[in-house]
Every structure is written in C-alpha cells, then in structure tokens.
C-alpha cells in the first residue's frame, strides 16, 4: 500500500505499468507518459488526478472522493466515470469519449479535441463550459446557472445561439 500525500508517476515505459490501483491516502496523483497504462482502479481518497499522455488508457474506475480530473492525450479512453464529488473535468484530445455522464456536482467543464463526443450533459450546477474542436456536438443544453460559455470550431452548432 502506498500512503503518500502526493505522488508523481512519470516516464514509465514498455510493460512496466499496466494498472494503477489501491493507493489509499494519496490525495493528488500525476501520471505522465505511461504509454502502456490501461486501467486506473480503486484509488480511495484521491482528490486530484492528472493523466497526461497515456495513449492506451482505456478505463478510469474511481467512484468517489475525486474533485478534479484532468485527462490529456488519452487516445483510447472510452468514458468518464460517474464520480459524485467531481467538480472540475478537463479532457484534451480524448477522441474516443462519446459522452459525459451526469455529474451532479460538476461546476467546470473543459473539452478540447473530443471528436467523438455527441452532446454536452445538462448538469444544473455547471458554472463554466469551454469546448473546442468537438466536431460532433450539435447543440448546447440550456443550463440555468451557467456563467460562462466559450466554444469554437464546432461546425454543427448553429450560429444563432
């Protein structure tokens, strides 16, 4: 069991790391350039997770405690888990994600180059949405408490919003 307050995992190559699990008491985790990482599961107590350039990551199975999830260049990530406490979600170049689940506490959503994403979730607590180059998104839900909406290069969205 790893019980650090903060942990940084980076530059792990070949078959050295395929799964990350059971890291109780770790609060913040940075995972970078782990090209063979496939699964992240059962990390209790984690509040911030940064995943950078893990092109073969398929699944993140974290069900609670996480407040921030940042995914960058996770080319095979299939979905975002339902995490009740999640407040901030950023996905950059995660082309296989096709939907974002209803995350009831989410306030900040940032999406770039998620070309398979079909729609944005209607989450009543969202305050800020930024997205760019999400070519399949055709509409933006009406969100009552939304303070900031920024989007660009999404050709299916009607210009008359």
Search tags:
161 residues; mainly beta; eight-stranded parallel sheet; three-stranded parallel sheet; 0% helix; disordered N terminus
Can you tell me about this structure?
This protein is mainly β. Mean pLDDT is 84; it is low at 1-5 and 10-15. The chain has an 8-stranded parallel beta sheet, with no helix packed on it. Strands 2-4-6 form a 3-stranded parallel beta sheet, with no helix packed on it. The chain is built from no helices and 11 strands.
Unreliable stretches (pLDDT < 50, length at least 5) are: 1-5, 10-15
- Helix tally equals 0
What structural category do the secondary elements indicate?
mainly beta
Computed CA radius of gyration, to the nearest angstrom: 16 Å
Intertermini distance: 51 Å
Shape: globular
Summarize the main sheet: 8 strands, parallel
Give the strand order of the largest sheet, numbering strands 1, 2, ... along the chain.
1-3-5-7-8-9-10-11
Total E-strand runs: 11
> In sequence order, what are the helices and strands, one letter per element?
EEEEEEEEEEE
Beta-strand content bin: 25-35%
Kindly state the percentage of residues in helix. under 10%
Mean pLDDT rating: 84
